[in-house]
Amino acid sequence: MSDTSLPPELYTALADLLGSSGFLTNSTDTASYCTDWRMLYQGKCAAVLRPATTADCAQAVTLCVQYGVPIVPQGGNTSMVGGATPDESGKAVVISTTRMNRILNIDHADLTMTVEAGVTLKAAQDAALKEGLMLPLSISSEGSADIGGILATNAGGNNTVRYGNARELALGLEAVMPDGAVLNVMRKLRKDNTGYALRQLLIGSEGTLGIITTAVIQLQPQPRTRETALCAVPNAKGALDLFAAFRKQDPAAIQAFEYMSGTSMGLVNALIDNCPLPLSEPAPAYALVELASPRADDSLRTLMEDVLGAAFESGLVSDAVLAESETQRQNLWMIREEHAEAQKRAGASVKNDVSVPLAAIPEFIEKATQACEALIPGIRVAPFGHIGDGNIHFNLVQPEGADPKGFLAQDHAMMDTVANIVRTLGGSFSAEHGVGQLKTYMMPSWRGGAELDGMRKIKAALDPQNLMNPGKIFPTA
């Protein structure tokens, strides 16, 4: 039985265009598309559209625009800020790109991959690996996050310190614009100075300016040498000092450098199977270091041992474990990647995805921890993240035994407490997760004046009916 508010003529046209597998209206079929991964937002939709080609997606958008139906683009539905969830009105359609899942080309000369939006990051990584290449973007949700959503949010991840965010990796893309027109800037060029870089406008726009359907992504040679170590450090400053020590020796060798607080690590060890602490005893903080090189004979082991040896002598590192096999390396990374899941299992949490200048990281973590502990006694402050590029996930987990709903009712107070400290240090209230609908209220004070006004004018010019992912990024009046 259908459950939809679509006009009958539009219903018939979309059903004919997309077929039974591409046009879902039964509420039992659409429910999973209306809830975000964190279960913070529960919306409704008139239908879920699942086009298999760019042409079908463009036609579906054109039809929706003709009838004034809002559109919520959705990829793997892994947004941390409700960026791909419809509102509660039930008027919008969700356009899911999951059926657009072909890897179209891998070019060894250009070191590029041409891929449709619905390919998961993990599938794209695996395809590159089979060709002896590497797609360097790596995030915790790579098994379900797809290329379109990753570009729409300008995702960063573990390897940003070396390769940059998604924006730096995308050479070209194809997208369906808010009027149904297809924008094709699928060029593999490293240099192309011919007016506005429209692909860069779409990357990071969170689906408010169009639906990315295909992209050209830069690849790298597959590393032939890797060295990975988990190190116990006294605090965030110790982790930052260790990063500086590696960078001083060979900045090009650093592929990832991750920070984990003792509290966050403790949750992983306690709540995630097969993730025990591989060190002799718990520490106040940890750093996960990965060095990589495409050269088989690269002396990365010597570099790792030399830097860590000096760090032991100075007291900067109290304990460390070096991966002796690929399995051990994966186990160390599993510990890092399970931090979000462990915090979810520990109860309600408020996620602050922020960035500050590298030198300000220790001060930020110390001040924000003190402020949040004063705000909510018993709160578990569990920061972790990409210390090498200044992006800290300053997550706050409810006190043990507390009421989850009562804790989440204070989310703005906690977010504002953290954000105020970030502001004094010259940082950003959103580093890589985006604004979505969670942080729209912050935009006027953080990005107001000419900056927000410019964004609104661009949105109005490309989407005059405000049908493309309404309610995201921009604060409501």
UniProtKB/TrEMBL annotation:
Any GO BP: respiratory electron transport chain
Pfam families reported for this sequence: FAD-oxidase_C, FAD_binding_4
UniProt keyword Flavoprotein, yes or no: yes
Keyword field: FAD, Flavoprotein
Signal sequence range: none
InterPro entries: FAD-bd_oxidored_4_C, FAD-bd_PCMH, FAD-bd_PCMH-like_sf, FAD-bd_PCMH_sub1, FAD-bd_PCMH_sub2, FAD-linked_Oxase-like_C, FAD-oxidored/transferase_4, Oxid_FAD_bind_N
GO molecular function: catalytic activity; FAD binding
Residue ranges constituting the FAD-binding PCMH-type domain according to the UniProt record: 41-222
Ranges that cross the membrane: none
Needed co-factor(s): FAD
Keyword Lyase attached: no
Family note: Belongs to the FAD-binding oxidoreductase/transferase type 4 family.
Name under which the protein is recorded: 2-hydroxyacid dehydrogenase
